[in-house]
Amino acid sequence: MERIVVVGASLAGLRACESLRMAGYSGTITLIGAERHEPYDRPPLSKALLKGEWEPDRIRLRKPDDLAGLDLDMRLGVVANGLDVAARTVSIEGGESVAGDGVIIATGSVPRRLPNQPDLDGVTVLRTLDDSLDLRRRLEDRPRVAVIGAGFIGLEVAATAARSGCSVTVLEGAPSPLMRGLGQRMGEVVARVHARNGVVVRCGVQVAGLEGAGGSAIGVRLGDGELVPAEVVVVGIGVAPATQWLDDSGLELRDGVVCTEALRAAPGIYAAGDCARWVNGLFGESGEEMRVEHWTNAAEQGAAAATNLLAELAGDAPAPYAPVPFFWSDQFDSRIQFIGRAHGDDDVQLVAGELDSSFVALYGHVSGCHQCHCRGPASCWS
After folding, report:
1. Which of 196, 211, 208, 187 lies closest to 379 in space, CA to CA?
2. What is the pLDDT of residues 131-145, one digit of tens each?
3. CB neighbourhood size of 138 (10 A)
4. Is residue 259 a part of any domain in this protein?
5. Do the beta carbons of residue 90 and residue 83 sit within 8 Å?
6. What's the pLDDT score for residue 348?
7. How many helices (H) and strands (E) does the chain have?
8. Which residue positions in the chain have pLDDT lower than 50?
9. What is the pTM of this model?
């Protein structure tokens, strides 16, 4: 084995590289990253880095000496634009191709845009280090901020902007924040945390478009005609897996790279992180197909993809990747922690504490609990 190509220079890609070396792989590892930065941690982008408490050097995933010790052929600021599955060859901009004995796809995700979103100064997303630094600069002037979308990133940005002295309004079409992640009842608890800290959270509203004057944003127009004034508009309506470069590859793409339980997308090709869709056999006999966009999954899945690729190349059977999903989110002085997988029809019961303080809630989903009919995963706000 002479070369393995890892596409995506963030957490999942880096952990894949580290796992290859820890397993004794001594061949060339080519790490291709679309951003010019060395691998960095994304959670601080909406919190400590955005607020100015941290600088970019603090969010590096590894110290320079540790990264150099991996002996990587790093291609940063380079976009992958194609994959020949049979030849296991990655095409990159400029016409070059990089062939390997195996390929690990860890290209993550990209922010979604509003339909017909205009190109206005002051309208931004938050996904990259450069996005965070640009938004941090804008918040220094204490603008009025409108956040479209009450998911985790949108709410974290809203909390940081409010703590920076900005007037913040969050606009959400669903009945409560975090409907997909926590359900309505717990989402309403999160809304009250923001309200106590001065953020206006408006749910059940529809965004008709963005308004500008002189090329700059002046607000968000709602479906009923109301204008929500804002000099800065953060579009936080979720992400899509970064798989467009694979459209002509022949891989199965369905809201991510479709993989087996062992993260295998094709012979010698594995996927990990935000872009991977796989069957988690932990959830029922037939498994539950899922794509997980959280930090812990990216780290663990990157390592698992590397281990399984080496197993396949050595002629061994790759192991199923079947974790219990886990995520957390810091908003103001509160932390949300969730272990398990929420469903829209879960029965949610408070088992300790008080809703507007620290508490533990239990989410029950009978169809996923087999014959024991246990209550399933738990979540905690502390």
Report:
1. 187
2. 999 999 999 999 999
3. 18
4. yes
5. yes
6. 87
7. 8, 27
8. 368-382
9. 0.92
